[in-house]
């Protein structure tokens, strides 16, 4: 009989850390997720620097991308790190992370438009790879965020899961959008951030489709 390989890592946390992951209030989660956005908005509204919107474009976009990466890592991490409550907490809070990611993407878009301050400039930049990939990723985000409430989950049924799979397309477009910045100067930081997600998704594909299976006599 062939022996199947099992790379799942079992990790056990102390009772205090387990209770933390089980009891974290959604209000605290929202407060943490929104805190940086509140600070960015406050800076934008109160700063006298004429380039403040330009300075906020990149950090708002990077925050959105990082939250997207974290929420997408939840499932493969839960598969890999069995027994650890961290990935389970991420899975339970994926919708919070997704809405927060959209919120920072919205801030990113607003700061970009305010920085350009001209519809003509915005339209002229559309053919650039790092621009149109960002716009399409944002457009995909909109229905994902709008249908994140329990009401739509119940009403849409299996269609809701089908819609949520578009998150993968948004992630790929976000990776290209980030990497192509400044004649691909953004490639290294984009790959550093997306690298763990790519590795985990590769593990997920291997686990479900490529790993050796036990052969029954």
TrEMBL record:
GO terms for molecular function: FMN binding; heme binding; oxidoreductase activity, acting on diphenols and related substances as donors. Coiled coil: none annotated. Its main location: membrane. Keywords: Iron, Membrane, Transmembrane, Transmembrane helix, Transport. GO terms for cellular component: plasma membrane. It comes from the Bacteria. It holds the Pfam family Ferric_reduct. Signal peptide: none annotated. The chain crosses the membrane at residues 27-45, 65-84, 96-114, 129-153, 165-181, 187-210. Residues 65-174 form the Ferric oxidoreductase domain. It is found in: Membrane. It is a multi-pass membrane protein. PANTHER family: PROTEIN-METHIONINE-SULFOXIDE REDUCTASE HEME-BINDING SUBUNIT MSRQ. This is Sulfoxide reductase heme-binding subunit YedZ.
